[in-house]
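Hey, resending since the last one bounced:
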Amino acid sequence: APYECKRSSFWMKWKPTITVDLTIVGFEEGTGRNEGRLGAIIYEGVDNERNIRVNVGTGYSDSDRDEFWAARDRLFGVIGEIEADAVTQNQDGSYSLRFPRHKRFRGFEPGEKL
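The structure tokens again:
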């Protein structure tokens, strides 16, 4: 479609994203309306020779938050797929993800290598 100098449904903007598989190493309880259930899952792992540690607090439904919080003892060591905009380097030299969101858990056993 030709470009229109206004909002239009003919052109769509998509930003590129990456996915990273990391291991669950911890959980954070939520605050506010999420108090008493999952707030974020803490992931760690290596991607492209960079050690990444990130808290992922988005991508969960309310039922996911209840279910994952109740099953957190069984989820330690499980591999999760996280979608993000980019890998970023922190001021201390460690790495994290920009705008991470939970996509799914991988079908691997806890502690299993990729």
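The longest helix spans residues 62-70.

Sorry for the duplicate.
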